[in-house]
Amino acid sequence: MFFSRLTLNPVWRSFHDVQHEVNRVFDRLGNHPFGLTEFPALNLWEADDALHVEAELPGLDLSNLEIFVTGRDQLTIKGERKAPVAEKATTHRQERGYGKFERTLKLPYAVNEDAVEARFELGVLKIRLPKHDSAKPRKIEIKG
Fold first, then answer.
1. Are residues 76 and 8 in the same domain?
2. Rounded to whole angstroms, how far apart are CA atoms 93 and 30?
3. H or E stretch at 18
4. Whole-prediction pTM value?
5. How confident is the prediction along the chain (144 residues), in pLDDT tens digits per residue?
6. By the 8 A CB rule, do 64 and 124 touch?
7. What secondary structure does DSSP assign to 28-90, as a single string?
8. What is the span of the domain harbouring residue 55?
9. Alpha carbon 86 to chain centroid distance?
10. Residues 3 and 71 placed together within one structural domain of the fold
11. Domain count of the chain?
């Protein structure tokens, strides 16, 4: 079957546009210092009267880490993992990301920012965020 150039031009133009968009997305993602996923990887769970967060931060120097609680229901973890300096060496593979990062989570309820506790153990940041009094269930007295 014979197709004229006029018929194919819009088709090829569409393919070119799609290819351009895919390349643009992968270029942008490829420039992310930690790859395609959010960094650091987080676990968030609720136990008793507090939220618990764990963040994997291998190779991070504690002096390059900051934690903020904003508006009683937003947690921000901010820091930088610096690349090792390899003098007179050739890198053959680099899968671990380096650079600055910032991760902000909207918490499911208000927390008591004055009672937040954080520990850094074996490359894992562990944060305990106690519920704010306004987020705790209150028993209501029923009058008869």
1. no
2. 15
3. helix 5-30
4. 0.68
5. 444 444 556 776 776 677 767 666 655 554 455 555 678 889 999 998 899 999 999 888 899 999 999 999 999 999 998 887 878 888 888 777 788 999 999 999 999 999 999 999 999 999 999 999 887 788 889 998
6. no
7. HHHTSTTTTS-SS-EEEEEETTEEEEEEE-TT--GGGEEEEEETTTEEEEEEEEPPP--TT--
8. 42-84+97-135
9. 28
10. no
11. 2
Structure tokens at 48: 């008793």
Q: Using alpha carbons only, what angle is made at residue 95 by residues 92 and 97, rounded to the nearest 5 degrees?
A: 120
- Write the CATH number for 129: 2.60.40.790
Q: What phi and psi, each to the nearest 5 degrees, are found at residue 67? A: -130, 135
3-state secondary structure of 14: helix
Q: 9 is written with which tokens? A: 């031009």
Amino acid code (one letter) for 68:
F
